[in-house]
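Progress note, project year one: complex with iron/sulfur cluster.
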Amino acid sequence: MKDGTGNKATEEKNSNKRIWIYPKLIIGKLYRYRNVVSYVLLVALFVAPFLKINGEQLVLLDVLERKFVIFGILFMPQDFYLFVLALLSFMVFIVLFTAVFGRVWCGWACPQTIFMEMVFRKIEYWIEGDARQQKELNNAPISAVKFGKKAAKHFLFVLISFLIANVFLAYIIGSDTLITIITDPVKQHVSGFIAICIFTAVFYLVFARLRELVCTVICPYGRLQEVLLDRKSLVVAYDYSRGEPRSHIQKATSNSAGDCVDCGLCVQVCPTGIDIRQGTQMECINCTACIDACDMVMEKTHRPLRLIGFKSEEEISDGKSFRFSKRIYAYAVILVLLFGTLTTLLVKRADIGATILRASGTLYQLREDGTVSNLYNAELINKTSGPIQFAIAMPDEQTRIQYINQTNKIKKGESVKLTFFLIRPQHYVQEYKSGITLGIVSGGKVISKAKTTFIAPPNL
Ligand code: SF4
Ligand code: SF4
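Model obtained:
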């Protein structure tokens, strides 16, 4: 990656002072596509926590209760390995996707960019005007017009931040709990209202003040670009082999002049304040605004489009067309393995998670009727989205069960604890410690199995 010297982003770093960015709005072909993508994603983001499958929220990430639901599938703390595997698969997918397409996630699908560029920025353009008018307004002395515009803008910013905070909480605490917090009197859910207010303030700060700093300074994904990208990765890039030597259009009479007319429009539209002509930079979020801007210039000056476009460094410098590198194949193999393992584990996942252990500190009990018993503690967790009636099935006809406490029903997403004896005739016991598998039966089917041990003096 080349150094971004000369960019607003780099000037900012050097001067240690925030340089406010006023990106110019150019509505090109890619901007229109981004609009469509962002509306679809915004609808999905706002609707997902309120949709239910089999009574479970479509997506729930309840960190406090350690309950996760993805596409209606409930993950309990006992399924943590599945959740970790799913996260790992997602991370490898992102690494693979980044190695091929660069940071396109940031520009097109990241909620930060979508809210910033497609919601908050649009409100700003609507109320304060284009980039030049916004700058003039900020530099103007306070007046009734300035006060009115700023008040209207920040009122809408707070309102949308409040909405986002609510949706964010719906993912964390569940939409039902959120609705209860909102509809009940405030004094019944003081902590819930404080949480909504705190998140509203955080989102307002992010979109009204921090803005591109989230992508260029705070987000760790942006910082990984240097290791994730290589010369073969497709990124938003300036084709310097075609554009240089750049020259203003009126001077571009010689045949040696490149296609870049040095109009600076690609820099003016950049929401992170960089000049893409200085090479791929960590601050570039691949939003493609500069592609639209440059295409517009190319069209007006009757030059071929895509002086800036999705290109690999190899394509620009050596003229080689895009092809997958060995690294990409390696990532793809890892992803297939991870995804295959995850799918197998998900398919094999039992509806009831059962842990059955011999009660600690106990051995065996010899009974007067010639039998021997072991005491067990069991925990059964219902991983489905409905209640389950169950019974414990014995491994053979010689073994029977005597409950100390018994239940045969588990509510959805809950667990029950059982204590019971397993009893066997002593003459049946052949070894001191033997493995034993108990089935959990529901609706006439064994839906889960649990292994434990049985100890008894062997009948020698
Ligand atoms: S350089 Fe282009 S693609 Fe990258 S952030 Fe700026 S405008 Fe977006
Ligand atoms: S918009 Fe295109 S022509 Fe204008 S400065 Fe940028 S690269 Fe050069």
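Residues 101 and 437 are 50 Å apart (CA to CA).
The first strand starts at residue 52 and ends at 53.
No further modelling is planned for this target in the current period.
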